[in-house]
User: What shape does this take?
Amino acid sequence: MDDENKFLFSQKIQTMEAFAEFFQAVFAASRPEITVEIVRGKNVIGLALMTGDKILSPMVRLDTLYDKYIDGYSLWKVFCEITSAYDEYDSRNSTGIVAAVEDFELVRHRICYRFMNYEKNKELLETMPHVRWLDLAIVLYIPVAAHDGKGLYLAVDDALIEKWGIADTEALFVEAYANTPKIFPGSIRDMEDVFKQDYDNAPETGYEDNGERMYIATNTEKFYGAAVVLYDGLLESFAREIGRSLYILPTSISEMTLVADVDEANPAELRAVLKNVNFETTEEKDFLSNNVYYFDRGTGNISIV
Assistant: This one.
């Protein structure tokens, strides 16, 4: 260990929060290929460590390591222990992450919700709590890390709920409905602006919108962003702003495309556009639906057209 690192690891840390922030900074400086996210529970703190090539990443609880540190364990030894756990972790064997998520208090404020197609996932849905919504299902997951449409997560299934000892699954959805907009704030942006900013060229949709704008509804990380249409007040405030009800095209799990309801809008044409987009550009794993939905700004209801 060089003199600079000796000084870094000789610091005195007084709180668990500072302990977590210290190792987040150390990994950023020494192992930049590893993204470290601090995961906060009610009474515990953990670290989620990930790189883009792993399906899941290990989550390390810090309470035991912090106790070791207080009892005389050096920061360097703690760092080596965390690094070893990461390097030895096999993404095909989720032991590292499960050890952390089995503690409900550690992850309850991280539970989120997302959409999946109901008919195509019936067998999978038999193993996890879900809520029917139109032709989709709302399911729960725990994000480990997410950025620019990519991320890692752990599905909340019946086996995990049993380990939590949770009998009331409705309470989990209450948690998720509160957590998701906080963790992944929603936005609605003009499609033209989105493509100008995020892409070199806009894809062809085959739809002429008669001068009316099309919009993209997603979240800050574009990670399971289609679920933002359920965010309290998001569609209502946008429809009020433009003075129109909305057609909703579920173009992928990452986003919904919105079209203002004007006299020229044709639901049949929109269905054809949606099917074309899903066939040409949406990967099978990202598919949601070929049905067009309608948000009525008068009632606040969403229905299949």
Notes: Residues 91-98, 200-211 have pLDDT under 50 and may be disordered. Residues 186-304 form one domain. The chain has three domains: 3-105, 108-182, 186-304.
